[in-house]
Amino acid sequence: MLAGKHILVIISGGIAAYKAIELIRLIQKAGGTAQAILTQSATHFISPLTVSAISGRPALTELFDLTRETEIGHIELSRSADLIVVAPATASLIARMANGLADDLASTCLLATDTDILVAPAMNVRMWDAAATRRNIALLEADGVKIVGPDAGEMACGEYGPGRLAEPETVLAAIEGYFSQSSALRPLAGKKIVVTSGPTREPIDPVRYISNASSGKQGVAIAEALAGEGADVVFVTGPAEAASPRGCTIVPVTTALEMEAAVQKALPAAGAVFCAAVADWRVTNPSGQKFKKDADATPPRIEFAPNPDILKTVAALPEGKRPRLVVGFAAETGDLRARARAKREKKGCDWLLANDVSPGSRVFGGEDTAILFFSDEGEEDWGALSKHQAAARLAKRMALTLKD
Ligand code: C5P
Q: Residue 79 CA to chain centroid, in angstroms?
């Protein structure tokens, strides 16, 4: 059930910490791998050595890892997991999570991640019932954190009621349930998709450049929509004003040549969407020094060379190297249909989304667009819609085509 899944197991301090060892064993039996992090208080209940031996990789504790590793190491650690499981989760760790505190390795990883989190609380019944814990659990649930347990029963402290850590088998079932549900909800899971976005910038001298007004908004919306379908999105972006898409690998570039190199490096991929407004020409003789505007000096002469057509190059790659689905855009002013059809032919892409960027259309830089969609099956008018709606529609269609 968990083949190929990597779980980050965060163990906080409580009598039930020993049950995390059984949970790690069950994860492994189900085909998954587990990396453990122990909070400092967890080390009073179980030894990191035992956990390391069972998980087959060094259990990390806040004590030496925070001084030995860089912050990036922790961020990587939490993002590379397919799911983070906090078991047992004490009232204190739950409170820190709910309030976004990052004061040790465990809480830093929990805050720095965009991976889903499953929490298995374990605490004294009165602590579980306390108004503050109720509030914190409600906050976590509102943030999308999943909760399993706690069970009711006799507690180590002699009291009776809810607060006991859910049995390791129950936590495992919740983990398996998460993955079976998420594979239905995430049809592009495990599939890499490259998205280019934004303008490129071609230098004339160290401070001047040729570029265009692409905002990058459509590219960001597409990248986020594809990530939402579960894809591993590599987002290659020129200098754009739009904020980077969440849940994607961001590769910032400046020039068209850099964009091409970054796209080639990201291949192979299942799909590629070319949203960038790439400068058609680059300056062949950029000056190493800033051009001076001395009154008697002749104005500089700028020479141009054509930039590589990244979409056309990738669409022409041989089978095996070519992404299965190559999607291009056409921004046209006038005669949209005929030009878009011709462009799909010329570029060799599978799908082409055309929009009218005539003055007055406010597509460039705006929130809305109007799309004509071209494929082997013909043409579809998507009409006027927001860039987010266009992105969601494209991502769903890509998911249907690429899911098997
Ligand atoms: O030829 P035109 O610029 O109109 O083509 C637009 C499509 O081609 C877009 O998908 C754009 O991202 C892509 N393109 C590219 N490399 C270029 C020029 C355009 O990938 N040098």
A: 9
The verdict on the CB of residue 256 being under 6 Å from ligand 1 is yes
Residues of the chain with pLDDT under 50: none
Q: How far is the CA of 199 from the centre of ligand 1 (A)?
A: 11
Closest to 236 in 3D by CA, of 211, 210, 199: 199
pLDDT at 114: 84
The response to whether residue 194 sits with its C-beta less than 6 Å from ligand 1 reads no
Fold of 192-402: Rossmann fold (3.40.50)
| pLDDT for res 221 | 95
What SS3 class is residue 120?
strand
Nearest by Cα to 34 from 52, 65, 3, 8: 8
Domain parsing of the chain, residue ranges:
6-185, 192-402
- Its CATH architecture, for the domain 6-185, is 3-Layer(aba) Sandwich (3.40)
pLDDT at 79: 78
Whether 17 lines ligand 1, by a CB cut-off of 6 Å, is no
Tell me which residues are annotated as active site: 157
Tell me if domain 6-185 and domain 192-402 are identical in fold: yes
Q: Which run of H or of E encompasses 152?
A: strand 151-154
Q: What is this structure's pTM?
A: 0.65
Locate the ligand 1 atom nearest the alpha carbon of residue 327 and give its number.
Answer: 10
